[in-house]
Design brief:
Elements lengths: L1 E8 L3 H10 L4 E8 L6 H19 L5 E4 L2 H5 L5 H12 L4 E3 H12 L3 E6 L3 H13 L3 E7 L5 H5 L3 H14 L5 E4 L10 H8 L3 E3 H12 L11 H4 L3
Parallel strand pairs: 1-2, 1-3, 3-4, 5-6, 5-7, 7-8
């Protein structure tokens, strides 16, 4: 049995359902929630103040890996702030760790995605931060479009089809990009990854899919996982 520690905004057992669909048998999640009521800097700052205590709490468990998700929480301090988060984690625990945005960058690089479109459930100001964050690490967002949702409760209520429709529309409008990035683990898009790829011929990188790929790769588990896009099915 391997154990992944997961720190994520507004984490719940419902959120983990999609995670366990992707994970191989013998891997469990020990989760802790960062409470983010709405997408404002004040809320992200409060979450940041609680972060170290959550890491210390999880570090008492026999973790094999620690993942920090929440693209907006990670990006609110600017490009490259995921490194700051990981440096803080290293001061607390020797457990191997990563962030979802670190995973997204590495996933894009592995799939050869240098120019992408970005389909999101977020407001435009938050999308613009993500665009700058990705650009800092060499991923150009050619175009982006969001649904303007103010918090994770609204996003959770969105059907997966909203992700399919937004991503495929952007890919039709920009057929020469390398692929599409879809953030937010509360946007239940894992069920439409494969369909988007089959219909458009373009690779898809999403939040949950990318961090699971990063965690499994770091723990030495590289067996292909079919049904959730090229990133996992190639077994990199």
């Amino acid at each position: 049995m391997k154990l992944i520690g997961l720190i994520s905004p507004n984490l719940s057992e419902d959120t983990l359902v999609d995670v366990y669909k992707m994970l191989p048998e013998g891997i469990r999640i020990e989760g802790r929630a960062l409470n983010v009521g709405k997408y404002t800097d004040d809320e992200f700052h409060r979450a940041e103040q609680a972060f170290s205590d959550l890491v210390r709490d999880l570090a008492r468990r026999p973790l094999d890996f620690l993942m920090v998700t929440g693209e907006l929480f990670l990006s609110y301090k600017g490009p490259g702030s995921d490194r700051e988060i990981l440096n803080l984690v290293k001061q607390i625990t020797p457990t191997p760790a990563s962030t979802v945005l670190t995973a997204v960058i590495r996933a894009c690089q592995t799939l050869g995605l240098k120019r992408v479109v970005m389909a999101t459930p977020f407001p435009e100001d938050q999308d613009e931060r993500l665009v700058r964050f990705l650009a800092h690490d060499g991923i150009e967002v050619v175009a982006f479009r969001g649904l303007g949702c103010p918090n994770s409760d609204v996003i959770w209520a969105l059907p997966p089809e909203t992700g399919h429709d937004l991503a495929t529309a952007l890919l039709r409008e920009h057929p020469h990009v390398d692929g599409v990035y879809m953030p937010c683990n509360k946007w239940r898009t894992v069920s439409v990854i494969e369909r988007i790829e089959k219909e458009t011929g373009k690779p898809v990188v999403t939040n949950t899919q990318a961090w699971i790929w990063e965690a499994l790769r770091t723990m030495g588990t590289k067996n292909p996982i079919p049904g959730y896009g090229r990133l996992l099915s190639d077994g990199n």
